[in-house]
Write a structure and sequence with these properties.
Blueprint: E1 4-12, E2 16-18, H1 39-45, E3 48-52, H2 53-61, E4 72-76, E5 88-90, H3 94-103, E6 108-112, H4 114-122, E7 126-134, E8 142-143, E9 155-161, E10 167-172
Parallel strand pairs: 1-6, 1-7, 3-4, 3-6, 4-5
Antiparallel strand pairs: 2-8, 7-10, 9-10
Amino acid sequence: MRAQCSVFVATSLDGFIARADGRVDWLSLVEQQGEDYGYRRFFDSIDTLVMGRKTYETVLGFGGEWPYAGKRCIVLTSGEQPAKFNVELSAEAPAPLVDRLTSEGAKRIYVDGGVVIQSFLAAGLVTDMTISIVPVLLGDGVRLFGKTGADVGLSLVRSRSFGSGLVQLEYGV
């Protein structure tokens, strides 16, 4: 059975996951002590991450320890660059990559980064999505969703609202 491909992402109300320059400073609007909006539970359920090069570079820019220690991490990139924190670089298309990771024991893959999420959706690989909507309009930036090539049917599993104003939607795909 093919590994499950899951998305856990925050977006502005107008559908952006980052500013045009890649910054995600606006996420601090909903930071509350002791509240992780279910991220730890989700993170504990995955064994592998697949992210794009820009997302990888954003995470490196945070400084400090690698936040994905203990998880296998693949960065999708067509370029050659030095990899830090034992990440693997790959130029594979989504379906062959997921098939390879499944054959190597992956059970649940965390798919992260705008272009990567879009390509996995277009390939029909995403099985579930948790989308946290931050109460802010950015007006411009990196879109969460782009052209999918076809309708993508979603089934609402759960919706929750938080005192910070964040609304979280969980969908099966």
